[in-house]
């Protein structure tokens, strides 16, 4: 296990180097100039040149990249070109919010998705199955931008239950969490349904039934345990992507998370911000994958970590 | 649980505080670095300059209680008020202005706003590192400051009313370093108490403000990026005043509950189609004229724009133009077609650069329709803001859609940066228009302090510009805000930095 973790850590470092280099060259290749966001609408060429030199944007891409790696090795993320704030401090401020929102969405999505999937699978080919299936298709294809606004109009403006926007305690968290959970509920429902149906038809279930084991026990011990692996995969993927920020949900509900921060960095070509967000995002994704892999091992002893 | 949840959000309001919305986080509150509207409107509450603009856009005393201008129009002597204190309780002296101005010009500050003060004698030498001091700024005594210019410069006092010329305390700038951006200390009617980036700023009234203190206890600015979210917050009473988003304008306008709570202000801005004069096909004067005939601006203004503006008849906005002008182009597609045919340009294609803003896209498509109707194909190229800006600064597009907003209320602000040939590209003249007569008329206007003479030059320059049409002059936008019935003494200003926030009350 220790060796396994060490190996994964080593891979993470390589991955981070690769991803940062890729992001760096890609963002540099984009049209657009960070200095133009700093100087505003009326700037003399000399001022632009001076600021370009000050932030080091006049050097070639590769030496800029190595300069950045040096900075990172010192544990620094640099300052935003634009706001002059430490990127690291801002990430520390925003990541907990993103984590809260992602957790909120998963806390809603997991029980609801599993429940609907179960019902759908057990009542296969009935009206309730069809109903759940069509609702989950709608849930998947609804743009967050629309569903979010509807949810806000209904719960905030009509019922006055929750504040429409802002970052704060649980009251502010509920509406964006519901909005963000909708697509996850839809995926989870569908994956649960197909997985369960597949397992129902497997021979060991038939054997168990033939042995006269109680239906409830079959469902929970035999079927559910075997269905866990694909479900954990889906949950891990969704959670990982939510932890990288949910731009639209954050924008509609004025939630101060990583998504908006990244987006603004990209729009303004604020390279230190983009890089900081990418690094945090990569680490989070790798970490979630690692956890998922470890959970696999406990769910199914055939999955060996050291192999 | 439910009891907690149902407690309505408006109970979260701080008593005596007025709530505004910002659509984006201010980037910095360091006056030397601010280039965005959001930063400017907040810093106006935290800082003061030597002079400020009055409601009628005239120059009024701020920290300088009076001033005199020498006969040769070069030397300005300012008498400062005594008993003006920074919020750290230190009194403002003439030295502080000298320090603040030098700081803007100092290359280490990385200020994009050096142009505001570059007319001061010795500014260039100091910026280029050839001098340790700015020769033109002299401290006569603690309350007297003398500023000498390189050349007479008529809008100088208006420039001093800008954000970049606010006074800052040296000890706080040194103490905070780059973090002065988020820990501003000034002389203004409010102090910044808390700034949660991308969330909220809390300003608190200063009781020891040197002028009339604010009526409200404080101001909360909430960062709400989405327009519709802000409307919901407003309707729930969580915001006191908002700018009406374009999509909600007609609804509020037609609602008897709200229509008396709408305020409007004729903005100091000009929207235009820039025609790149430096390369074919728009180096051709007749083609540029044809564009001005081809587009029914009035119809666009009345429909898509819902009459939220006034037709432009030149670059200078109506409210600061002190002379009459007749715009020689009315909608006349026949004439446009004829001009194009005469030049043999029938059927050519031009590219038209725009940003991805939905309102802009809607307008651009109509413009495309009008130009196609007179025999020229238009290819719309949509870019996100950063790439767009780079492209138009470089002179890539044939045609582009843009607006210019006043930094100071002087016609010069709509002529020099936009049409003088020394300002090609990022400095403002993005159509790369070049006309030596216009250049010299604008310069002459800058050097004459007499308003009548100045207007004569500006008028002549504007005349030539409207004849040579490097732009299709579109309109000047009017902005609308809506307020809650409990808000009193609310006023809306044409330039964001004019509102000190002291008058509005409950």
What does it look like?
The complex is a heterodimer of chains A (307) and B (506). Chain A has helices at residues 2-29, 34-39, 45-54, 61-73, 87-122, 127-141, 144-158, 170-200, 203-210, 215-243, 247-252, 258-267, 271-299. Chain A has 307 residues and is mainly alpha-helical. The longest helix of chain A is centred in the middle third of the chain and has 36 residues, at 87-122. Chain A starts with a helix and ends in an 8-residue tail after the last helix. By secondary structure, chain B is an alpha+beta fold. Chain B contains 16 helices and 18 strands. In chain B, the strands form four sheets. In chain B, strands 11, 12, 13, 14, 15, 16, 17 and 18 form an eight-stranded mixed beta sheet that branches. Chain B has a four-stranded mixed beta sheet with strand order 1-10-9-8, covered by helices on one side. A four-stranded antiparallel beta sheet of chain B has the order 4-5-7-6, with helices on one face. Chain B is globular. Chain B starts with a helix and ends in a 23-residue tail after the last strand.
Number of helices, counting only DSSP H or I runs of 4 residues or more of chain B:
16
Assign a percent range to the helix content of chain B: 25-40%
What does the overall shape of chain A look like? globular
Number of discrete helical segments of chain A: 13
Most extensive interface: pair and counts? A-B, 54 and 56 residues
The radius of gyration over CA of chain B amounts to 24 Å
Total strand segments of chain B? 18
Overall geometric form of chain B: globular
Head-to-tail CA distance between termini of chain B: 33 Å
């Amino acid at each position: 296990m220790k060796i396994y973790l060490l190996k994964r850590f080593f891979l993470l470092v390589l991955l981070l180097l690769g991803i940062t280099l890729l992001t760096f060259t890609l963002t540099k290749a984009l049209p657009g100039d960070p200095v133009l966001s700093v100087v505003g609408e009326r700037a003399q060429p000399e001022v632009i040149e001076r600021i370009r030199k000050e932030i080091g944007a006049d050097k070639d891409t590769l030496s800029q990249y190595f300069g950045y790696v040096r900075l990172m090795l010192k544990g620094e993320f640099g300052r935003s070109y634009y706001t002059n704030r430490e990127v690291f401090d801002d990430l520390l401020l925003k990541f907990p919010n993103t984590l809260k929102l992602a957790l909120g969405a998963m806390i809603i999505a997991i029980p609801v998705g599993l429940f609907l999937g179960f019902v759908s699978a057990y009542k296969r080919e009935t009206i309730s199955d069809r109903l759940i299936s069509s609702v989950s298709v709608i849930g998947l294809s609804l743009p967050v931008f629309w569903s979010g606004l509807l949810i806000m109009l209904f719960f905030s403006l009509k019922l006055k239950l929750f504040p429409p926007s802002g970052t704060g305690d649980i009251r502010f968290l509920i509406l964006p969490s519901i909005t963000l959970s909708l697509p996850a509920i839809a995926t989870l429902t569908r994956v649960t349904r197909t997985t369960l149906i597949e397992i129902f038809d497997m021979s060991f279930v038939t054997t168990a039934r033939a042995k006269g084991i109680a239906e409830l026990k079959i469902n929970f011990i035999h079927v559910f345990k075997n269905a866990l692996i694909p479900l954990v995969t889906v949950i891990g993927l969704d959670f990982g992507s939510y932890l990288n920020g949910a731009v639209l949900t954050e924008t509609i509900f004025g939630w101060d998370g990583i998504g908006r921060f990244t987006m603004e960095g990209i729009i303004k070509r604020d390279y230190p911000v983009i890089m900081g967000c990418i690094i945090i995002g990569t680490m989070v994704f790798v970490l979630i994958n690692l956890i998922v892999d470890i959970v696999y091992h406990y769910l199914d002893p055939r999955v060996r970590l050291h192999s | 649980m439910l009891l907690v949840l149902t407690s309505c959000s408006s109970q979260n309001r701080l008593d005596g505080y007025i709530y505004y919305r910002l659509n984006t986080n201010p980037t910095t509150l360091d006056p030397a670095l601010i280039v965005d509207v959001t930063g400017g409107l907040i810093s106006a509450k935290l800082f003061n300059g030597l002079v400020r603009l009055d409601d009628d856009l005239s120059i009024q005393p701020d920290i300088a209680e009076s001033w005199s201008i020498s006969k040769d129009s070069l030397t300005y002597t300012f008498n400062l008020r005594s008993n003006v204190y920074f919020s750290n309780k230190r009194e403002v002296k003439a030295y502080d202005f000298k320090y603040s101005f030098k700081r803007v010009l100092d290359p280490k500050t990385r200020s994009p706003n050096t142009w505001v003060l570059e007319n001061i004698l010795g500014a260039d030498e100091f910026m280029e590192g050839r001098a340790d001091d700015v020769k033109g700024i002299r401290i006569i005594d603690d309350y007297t400051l003398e500023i000498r210019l390189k050349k007479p410069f008529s809008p100088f006092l208006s420039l001093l009313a800008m954000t970049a010329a606010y006074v800052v305390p040296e000890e706080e700038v040194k103490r905070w370093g780059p973090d002065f951006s988020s820990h501003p200390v000034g002389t203004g009617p409010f102090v910044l108490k808390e700034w949660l980036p991308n969330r909220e700023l809390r300003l608190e009234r200063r009781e020891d403000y040197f002028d009339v203190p604010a009526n409200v206890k404080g101001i909360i600015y909430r960062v709400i990026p989405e327009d519709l979210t802000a409307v919901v917050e407003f309707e729930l009473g969580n915001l006191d005043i908002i700018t009406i988003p374009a999509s909600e304008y007609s609804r509020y306008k037609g609602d008897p509950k709200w229509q008396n709570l709408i305020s409007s202000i004729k903005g100091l801005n000009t929207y235009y189609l820039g025609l790149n004069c430096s390369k074919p096909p728009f180096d051709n004067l007749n083609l540029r004229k044809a564009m001005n005939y081809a587009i029914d601006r009035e119809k666009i203004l009345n429909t898509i724009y819902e009459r939220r503006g006034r037709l432009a008849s030149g670059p200078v906005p109506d409210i600061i133009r002190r002379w009459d002008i007749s715009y020689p182009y009315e909608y006349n597609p026949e004439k446009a077609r004829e001009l194009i045919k005469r030049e043999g340009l029938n059927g050519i294609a031009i590219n038209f650069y725009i940003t991805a803003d939905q309102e802009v896209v809607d307008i651009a498509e109509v413009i495309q329709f009008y130009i196609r109707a007179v025999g020229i194909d238009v290819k719309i190229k949509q870019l996100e803001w950063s790439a767009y800006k780079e492209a138009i600064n470089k002179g890539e597009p044939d045609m582009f859609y843009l607006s210019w907003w006043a930094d100071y209320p002087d016609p010069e602000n709509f002529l020099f940066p936009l049409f003088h040939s020394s300002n090609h590209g990022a400095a403002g003249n993005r159509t790369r228009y070049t006309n030596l007569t216009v250049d010299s008329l604008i310069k002459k206007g800058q050097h004459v302090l007499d308003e009548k003479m100045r207007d004569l030059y500006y008028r002549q320059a504007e005349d030539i510009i409207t004849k040579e049409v490097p732009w299709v002059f579109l309109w000047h936008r009017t902005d609308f805000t809506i307020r809650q019935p409990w808000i009193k003494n609310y006023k809306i200003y044409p330039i964001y930095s004019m509102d000190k926030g002291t008058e509005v009350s409950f």
